Amino acid sequence: MEELTRTWWVYLVRGACAILFGLLAILWPGITVFALVVVFGVYAIVNGVFALLGSRERGSRTWMIAYGVLSVLAGVAALVWPGITALALLFLIAAWAVVVGVAEIMAGIRLRKATTGEWAFILSGVLAVLFGVLLFVWPATGALAVVWLIGTMAIVYGVALVALAFRVRALHSRRAGPAGAAPTVA
């Protein structure tokens, strides 16, 4: 448990990146496919790297390592092939969201034994899977709708991760006791 609480800041950084990514997507809806590919690629790499960093401190790391590696690979693929079509990008993002969602649902289920804040992981995972499935079902909804969906998903996902970060941080603070307090000797 102590290992998990020491990495609370990783969730905060991932959440802030997701919120920033979502805001940029919503504020500039006329973004080109190339710019979206670059922004998505960088975000997926950063998100994956921080997921890998956070996985070093957990007891059961398999899902987070798989999530981190797949996120980095999705980001690299997007950057290596920037001429990707809008439909291919849409399916890449949809597949990435489903994989991320399943990984986070699994991580949340495993966290139930350690903390009460697992709902944030499970919620972000369910939202990611739902988002991915919707993109697979309605691929021709239009570039603007996709940008707004991506932005909204990223913001909600980021807020859930920020909530998780502060919940885990509070748990760490309770375990550590008041700052500067000397331990009592009985």
Automatic annotation (TrEMBL):
GO cellular component entries: plasma membrane
Keywords from the UniProt entry: Membrane, Transmembrane, Transmembrane helix
Pfam families: DUF308
InterPro entries: Acid_resist_chaperone_HdeD (IPR052712), DUF308_memb (IPR005325)
Ranges that cross the membrane: 7-28, 34-53, 65-81, 87-107, 119-138, 144-166
Protein name per the record: Uncharacterized membrane protein HdeD (DUF308 family)
Biological source species: Streptosporangium sandarakinum
